[in-house]
Amino acid sequence: HIRQVLGRDGDLAGRKIVVSAGGTQEPVDPVRVITNRSSGKMGYALAAEAAAQGARVTLISGPVNLPTPQGVERLNVETAVQMHTAALELAPQAALFIGCAAVADYRAANAAEHKLKKTDDQDTLTLTLVKNPDIIADVAALPDGQRPFVVGFAAETQDIERYAQDKLARKGLDMIVANDVSQQGLGFGSDDNAALLLWRTSDGSDRLVAPPQPKTQLAALIVRHALTHLSLTSSGA
Ligand code: PMT
Questions:
Q1: How far apart are alpha carbons 100 and 15 in whole angstroms?
Q2: Which numbered atom of ligand 1 lies nearest the CA of 190?
Q3: pLDDT score, position 233
Q4: Which atom of ligand 1 sits closest to the CA of residue 137?
């Protein structure tokens, strides 16, 4: 709370920032969902850090067990489609959009209206999935004047840099935070994380390796570097 009060005249004073956090939940039937292991800790740390530097932060959050950071406005969603709607409504007013949420790439094509029953004669159950919208790619595709500086994440288990570079380019992002989610004690659910930060530059040489550290500390580093590049590229909202 003290950090937020002291940060009112900080580097992000008055700037609007939207952060997405947590995993989405895609219903299969009224009692079952497809989801992932995101705890929301990384995204909540980013929102808290931006608020502590004086930003007006809206956190679009999937279902998580975390308190709302001091001074942050929180919008709860469950599905990727709901997160997509919220993101595209809020992003055009923001200077910076950070997509830290672990969004389900697919959802059940037809969520059952009633609980699916186990039957004695069926040993397998086939679910048909359809693609969800790519939230961060759609934010990055907003027209000039409505488009914030866009920071995405890449959760990878192999070839981290190559896949992250690919996501940076394919989704039209300004910056990407790549994390190796196969490492014990880092990534999903943990208090610590490590990352490789990449930016969209002509020669691809602009990179920064952040060693394992608490997510709160990594969040400060990410916000600082996003802010530096945002100031270099635009005036921001
Ligand atoms: O929540 P924690 O337990 O603290 O864990 C943190 C984390 C591991 C979840 C976080 O650091 C992280 O890596 N978040 C991104 C997870 C993810 O979905 O990565 P991805 O590589 O599948 O997606 C790439 C980017 O596209 C992400 O910015 C994601 O938000 C975005 N995306 C993905 C799919 C989709 N349909 N829409 C999107 O916007």
A1: 19
A2: 3
A3: 67
A4: 39
- Alpha-carbon distance 178 to 156, whole Å? 7
pTM: 0.95
Q: What is the DSSP string of 189-207?
A: T-SEEEEEEEE--SSS--E
Q: What residues in the chain have per-residue pLDDT under 70?
A: 202-205, 232-237
Query: Which residue intervals of the chain are DSSP H helices?
Result: 2-6, 41-52, 80-90, 135-140, 160-170, 215-233
C-alpha–C-alpha distance, residues 152 and 172, integer Å:
10
pLDDT tens digits for range 224-236: 999 988 876 654 4
Q: What is the distance between the alpha carbons of residues 103 and 36, in angstroms, rounded to a whole number?
A: 9
CA distance 196 to 180: 9
Residue environment code for 157-175, b if the CB has 16+ CB neighbours within 10 A, otherwise e: eeebeebbbebbeebbbbb
Check if 147 has its Cβ closer than 6 Å to any atom of ligand 1.
no
87 lines ligand 1 (CB under 6 A): no
Cβ–ligand 1 distance for 134 under 6 Å, the answer yes
Helix axes 215-233, 41-52, angle to 10 degrees: 60
Best residue among 65, 81, 100, 216 to mutate for probing ligand 1, ranked by most atoms within 8 Å of CB: 100
What was the pLDDT predicted at 235? 47
Q: Write down the pLDDT at residue 203.
A: 66
Residues acting as catalytic residues: 36
Reported residue count of the chain is 237
